[in-house]
Amino acid sequence: MTQLYLSRLPCDDQCALRCKPRLWGQPFRESTVLLNVVASSRMKFKLVSDITLIIATSLVCLQGKIYLIRNQHGGREKEIGFENDHGQNISPKMALLNVFLGLFLLALTNIPGNVVCQNSVTDLVTPEFFDGIKNQAPATCEGKGFYTRDAFITALNSYPEFGRTDTKREVAAFFAHVTHETTGQFSFSLSFDSWYLSIISSDFCYIEEKNKADPHCTSPQYPCANGKFYYGRGPIQLTGNGNYIEAGRAIGFDGLNSPETVARDRVISFKTALWFWMTYVHSVLNQGFGETIRKINGPAECGGRNRDQVLDRVRRYTDYCKRFGVDPGPRLEC
Question: Alphabetically, which GO biological process terms does the record hold (predicted)?
Fold first, then answer.
């Protein structure tokens, strides 16, 4: 079934609508429409109704960037026309043909009637957001030069279902966990003016687990290679021979014989985090943040164990939710 998703950014003078059609389960094309909502002396961009939104979006999928334009000249409005992504005007007849073609394809491909509007992951994980996290870490943190937004976005392309629904909470939950898992040194500063002790964590600091003595050959149904260690690596700190082997099969690297790839290839590193997330965590998001903790580190942290770790994850999650302007929801602890 074809599905059409629109992503709308909070905006003052511009809004971005991103079309993400999927034909027969495969991504077909992604395009963006920019709507200038500020009237100028010559023109303003305007979507006049929901049906126009659907029509215009179908044209986006067909032709790249399409703008619905209402021209104004001398106080008199001219007819509505279309402009393609090369800045060329489309004749009214061609525009009408495109409208009918768009509607025909909408019916042919069985696009749901309700177009879903949501923030896309890339709209939330901006360069400022990502770099703001890792720039807190000192230069001695190996992860500071390893984890990059570009690597995350590249890895994200392999997991289109991530953040598709309840986007803000899922992004907040994911980054709450990966920053907790990779946090390193702590810097303490005492403010005599405010009488408080501030603790600043160095997130995205670690690539590999600090304790490298344990090989973590913990799944007897999977083999372990001689001399190889399956301790935590990457943003989610992928751990255990079974996880490495399954992640390798899904992503395309030798998790059995080359687990160190997760600490050397930054894109694969983020892919392992997203693979683990989509395999074990994504499905429980609607049960509250506490269930995501249970899926990631339940035996060590849930049921009253290591509550300080749980509270740290919750603090991060609620902070990100506040930043994104979304309520964190119920059942925050496990």
Answer: cell wall macromolecule catabolic process; chitin catabolic process; polysaccharide catabolic process
Residue with tokens 């892919």: 271
Contact between residue 69 and residue 81 where contact means Cβ atoms under 8 Å apart: yes
**Length reported for the chain:** 334
Give Cβ neighbours of residue 244 (< 8 Å, ≥ 6 apart): 230, 238, 255, 256, 259, 262
Q: pTM, whole model, 2 decimals?
A: 0.65
**Six token digits for residue 217:** 């050959």
> Which residues are within 8 A (CB) of 264 and not within 5 positions of it... i.e. 6 or more apart?
none
Burial of 250 (0-12, 13-18, 19+ CB in 10 A): middle
Residue pair 147/134 in contact (Cβ under 8 Å)? The answer is: yes
Half-sphere exposure of 117 (CA within 13 A, CB side): 10
Q: CA nearest 240: which of 269, 263, 217, 268?
A: 217
Radius of gyration (C-alpha) of the chain in whole angstroms = 24
Q: Which tokens hold the place of 132?
A: 């703001």
pLDDT digits (tens, 9 = 90+) for 73-128: 344 433 444 444 445 555 555 555 655 555 555 454 443 333 333 459 999 999 99
DSSP string for residues in 60-119: HHHHSS-EEEEEEETTEEEEEEEE-TTSPEEPHHHHHHHHHHHHHHHHHTT--SSPEEE-
Q: Point out the residues that are catalytic.
A: 181
What are the structural domains of the chain?
A: 5-118 (no CATH), 119-334 (1.10.530.10)
